[in-house]
Amino acid sequence: ATKDEAKKHRYRQKISEWLTLDLCHDLFFSDGKYHKQIRIEENATGFSYEKLFQEYLTEIVSEVWVEDPYVRHVHQASRYSLYNFLRFCEMLVKGPCKVKTIHLLTSYDEGSGRSQQISGLEEIQQSLKNYGVTLNIAFSSSIHDREIRFNNGWMIKIGRGLDYFKKPQGRFSIGYCDFDLRPCHETTVDVFHTKHTKKM
C-alpha cells in the first residue's frame, strides 16, 4: 500500500529473501540433509504419536522398523509399553501410509512377565494380519538403543522410546484415551534422514 518507491524496493528484497530461505529449507528438508530436535518437557501435552510421526509417514512408507528394549507387558513397573506399541501400530494402519511390514526388535521381559509379553505381541501380530500387515518380532538381550525407521529414509530416536507417556491418573481421567491430552515424561526426540547418517 505504500507509495514510497524506496520502501517498496526494500520490502520486495525482504520478501524475496524470505521466499528463498523458505524454498531452501524445503529443499534442505526434502533432500534429507536435516536434523530436527524436539524437547518434550515434563508434564507437557500435545505429543501423541500422530503429532510426532505424521509428517514423516508419507504415502510411500510401506515398511517400519522399531527398536525398543522395553516393549513389554502392561504390568512392568507401571509401564504401558505393549499398549503404546499397539497404539503406534494403530496409527500406522490408519494411514496415510500403506504399511505392509513392521519389524520389532525388543528384549524379553524378565521373570514371569515373559509369557504374557509374548502372548500380547502374538495377539497384536494376529490382529495386524487382519489389516494385511505383517509383524516380524525379534528379541535381543543386548539392545539398548531406541529408534524408529521408515523406508522413506526418516529415522526418529526418542530418549524414552515409545514409552514417554505418564500413567493416567485413572481409567476415567482426561488423557486416558486421547494421547494428545496425556501428560508426558521429559524426553528428547531427534529426527534424521538415513541418507545422511552413517552406521558405526
From TrEMBL:
Gene3D superfamilies: MITD, C-terminal phospholipase D-like domain. GO terms for cellular component: midbody. GO terms for biological process: midbody abscission. Residues 46-193 form the MITD1 C-terminal phospholipase D-like domain. This is MIT domain-containing protein 1.
